[in-house]
Amino acid sequence: MSLKNNKIITIDGPSASGKGSLAKALAKELNFILLDSGLLYRAYSFCFDHSQNHSLAADLFSNLNIKSIDHEMHVFKNEKDITSILRNEDVAKSASELSSLKETRENLISFQRDLASDHGLVADGRDMGTVVFPDAGTKIFLVADVEVRAKRRFLELQNAGQEVNMRDLIDDIRLRDEADKDREISPLMPADDSIELNSSNLTPQEVLKIVLKIYKEKTKEV
Ligand code: DC
What we know:
Blueprint: E1 5-12, H1 19-30, E2 33-36, H2 37-51, H3 54-62, E3 65-69, E4 72-77, E5 80-81, H4 83-86, H5 89-98, H6 102-113, E6 121-125, H7 128-132, E7 136-143, H8 146-159, H9 166-182, E8 195-198, H10 204-221
Parallel strand pairs: 1-6, 1-7, 2-6, 7-8
Antiparallel strand pairs: 3-4, 4-5
Helix pairs in contact: 1-10, 2-3, 2-5, 2-6, 8-9
This protein binds 2'-deoxycytidine-5'-monophosphate.
C-alpha cells in the first residue's frame, strides 16, 4: 500500500456542487493553502484566447502572478486582478473545451503539484484525487442535484451583476458535466479511495463539519 499524504485534501466534483466554498472554508479552518484548479484552467484559457497556441499560452500563463489572498486564489496580469473576469461564463465555456486537451493538462500539472508543501493543501477540481494528487490522505467527491447547482450558480452570477437565465444555466451545467465526464484524459470521476458526499440538502456549514470529521478520522488512521 502506498503512503498517504495527510497534508493534502482533494475535493473533486462537478461544477457548482459546492466544492469552492467547501475548499475555501477547509483551507481557512486548517490554515492550509488553497488550490482552485478550475481557476487555473480558466486562466490558461484566457492566455490561449490571446495566443491560439499552446506554447505561447504556457508562456503567458507563466507570466501571470497567482497568489493566495485570504485563503482564496487570485490571478494578476500586469498588477491587475483579473480573477472576476475569469469567473464569467464565456471563460468557463472555453476552459471546459480546452481542458479536454492533453497539451493544456500537461502545461498545468507541475504548477499544481508544486503547491503541495508542509503548509498543507486543499485542492479543488475534477482530477485532484485521481491524477494530480493520487497520494492525498483525504479525498472527497462532492455532488449535488443539477437544479440545486444551477440555482447556486444563478445566485452567484446575479450577485456578481451578470445577467443569467435559469434554463440556460441548467443546460450549460448538463453539457459541461457530460464534457467533463466523457473526456478521454483526466475525466471527472471519483477516485477509488474517495468518499462521496451529496450536498443538495446540506448547508455549507454542515458539509464543512462532515468533511472536517472525515479528515480528522483519516489522519488518525496512520
Ligand atoms: O471549476 P471551474 O468551473 O472553475 O472549472 C472550469 C473548467 O475547467 C471546467 O469546465 C472543467 C475544467 N477543469 C478541469 O478540467 N480540471 C480541473 N481539475 C479543474 C477544472
